[in-house]
Each structure stands twice: as C-alpha cells, then as structure tokens.
Sequence to fold (100 residues):
Amino acid sequence: MTINGFDVSYAYVDEATDELRTQTKAVQDQIESLDSQMQVVKADLDGAMAAEYDRKVASWRANVVDMQLLLGKAEAALNEIRNNYASTDGREAMNWQALL
Fold:
C-alpha cells in the first residue's frame, strides 16, 4: 500500500519481525553454547575469575531478556502499523467503490 509516496509492504513488516526474533534467539543460543563449553574450563577456575565469569554470563542473559522485551514492543508497534495501514487501505478502497 502506498500513501503519499510512503510504501508499506505487509510481508516486509512480517519478515522484519521474524528476523528480529530469529537473531535474538541466535544470540541466546550462542551464549548458552559458550557457557556449556566453558563449564569444562570453569571447573579449573578459582575465586574471582570464576565469579566474574558467572556475573558476565548472567549479564549477557539479562541483555537477551531485554532484547526479547524490546522485540516484543517492536513487534507490537510493527503489528499496529501493519493493522493501521491495512485498515486505511480497506477504508479507502470502500470510498473508491462508493464512487462507482
């Protein structure tokens, strides 16, 4: 749909949302994979190094949760935009039909 030179492709909006979700999941999977591999090494770590590693992984996981929350908000906004444009498109189509 095009309004005043602004073009909205519903499929692109859906694809963008899916891609954001996919990439966030990929980051989460990488963190978990790294942590799984580090468990072998971590067994040999003592004191502050092991504690700092645990803090860092917890921070990364918290960042992923933040990414997921932001993604949820972005997805809601994109869906609202999509729905608003679809509604406008339908309404304008009915206006044109009424002229015939």
Q: What stands out?
A: The helical segments are 10-42, 47-99. Residues 3-99 form one domain. The mean pLDDT is 86.
